[in-house]
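ugh ok fine here u go
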Amino acid sequence: MRRAAMVPEDALPVMTGVTPPWPGEREVVDGTGIFVRRTPATVPDAPPALYVHGLGGSSANWTDLAHLLADRVDGAAIDLPGFGRSDPTESYSVAALAGWVIRWIEHAGRGPVHLSGNSLGGAICVRVAGLRPDLVRTLTLISPAMPFLDPRRSVHGRLLPLLMVPRADRLAARRLATIDPDVLARQVIEACYADPSVIPEERWLEAIEEVRLRYEVPTYLDAYLRTLRGLVGSFVRAYLPGEASMWRIATRITAPTLVVTGRQDRLVDVRVAPQVARVIPDSRLLVLDKVGHVAQMEVPRTVARAVRGLLEEPGVGGPVPVGAAHAGRWVRVGAGSQLVANATERARRVLSRPWRTLPGRNLPGVAP
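structure:
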């Protein structure tokens, strides 16, 4: 793990006004409609990039970052099945959703891609990069929802009892019906941003419109709760023996990786991102003060500077390393079972420590 390199501010494109969400269309993959927004590259022969949103989010979460990177990559952002404007699916486990990302990359013929994920999308991208390195050029993880054991470190902790209730989606629907979309949008933004005052009026209106969509799609709450249940299940399995551990999968990642987190993240334990950076072999860390859970939305220019810093490292933009996955699995040469066990145990110890110090202090990637 080392400090993330950042290009100068003046290396980024100048943005005038607020960029509207990029246009999208529905694509059918294995019989399921997947909504995809595309940010065309502004230069010829740009390599492809794919952006994966978090729990309850959508492809619109990447509007600004995709714009700022358009002179380096040809971007596409998908709505995961059951979210945004995509069709529902049968399973919402992290493994199942990662399978959809893999199938979409193969369906679109875009691999290998510069892969980015936020929150749940980060966990999904860890699995994709760990199991299918042939599909990933670089990996960017923004507040990745990797396993941690203390629900008090997340505002989602209050939802855990609901996951044990049969047909919890019906209870949630009744509760949702009593909340005005404007109020719910504000609650979501206050949970995700360290400073909601930085949000332009246009983004507030877009957030309200996204929330209204949740009221209109009857399968949304079922997808949300089942996905959260699947994510929590992956947290538990991460500290048990077996190949399903997300920490074990992370040790297999060979792509150059950037890990970004906000010190004021209220959804994912802020100690997680530094531990992710320690476990992934070729990683860089950026810890941002006064930033919350969605750094790509709250401070898109800062994140773009770090992503471009990664892309401009010597050799990073070159060919994918030789060695394709077979049957959906990849084993890094020299990565024995003891290395995996050590990484998993180290993650367990770090994330079970008492909250004694300011998270992220004295790490090499801390930035103001």
